[in-house]
Amino acid sequence: MMLYDCSKLEERERGITAAVEAVQRGDLIVMPTDTVYGIGADAFKSWAITALQNAKGRDRTQPVPVLVGSRQTVDGLVYGLPAVARDLMEAFWPGGLTIIVEHAASLQWDLGESGGTVGVRMPLHPVALEVLRQTGPMGVSSANKHGQPPALTADQAREQFGYGVSVYLEAGETPDPVASTIIDVTQTRPKLVRAGAIPLEKLREVAPDIEVPE
User: Fold this and answer.
1) CATH ID of 2-206, from 1.20.58.100, 3.90.870.10, 3.60.15.10, 3.40.50.720
2) N or C end: fewer C-beta atoms under 10 angstroms in the chain?
3) Domain boundaries, the chain
4) Where in the numbering of this chain does the YrdC-like domain appear (predicted)?
């Protein structure tokens, strides 16, 4: 288990390299995002995703969302992307918006009982983006055990996960620890699943017909 201080340039480079190698091995890492710290694994290594769910104390009924390092990456993950999804990505990525889409049936991954859909997001954090651009898509969930508050630093995450995680990337306290907004675009109308970092009125400027549950 290693913790790297990403505020120091040399240590940041070493930490990112170590994190990428850990993900490629199928190990778990903790990294900063623009919302809260995330615990992550290679999205295409099912045993790594299972380890992530076990570390959090969650079961397969809560599928793991996926973080990507670029908008283009999504094209390789989905069967077809509705125009409204592209508009939302253009407006709010990188940033605090998770979009639920239908993933391509050919993908060799197992993120839990997702019913053929996946929540994807491109985070607005330089450390996370640097890792993701080298690892490819990662299954990432908030860095906390089930029922505990999300970690706002890598050190807080280490207190919860200890040696269950190989590499911790510390980038200081999350400035705005609000969970991402979640929009489902798998139906005819986009639907708000969870209010969060991106306010509804901003979303409606791009997708005026967003459905909001009672």
Assistant:
1) 3.90.870.10
2) C
3) 2-206
4) 13-198
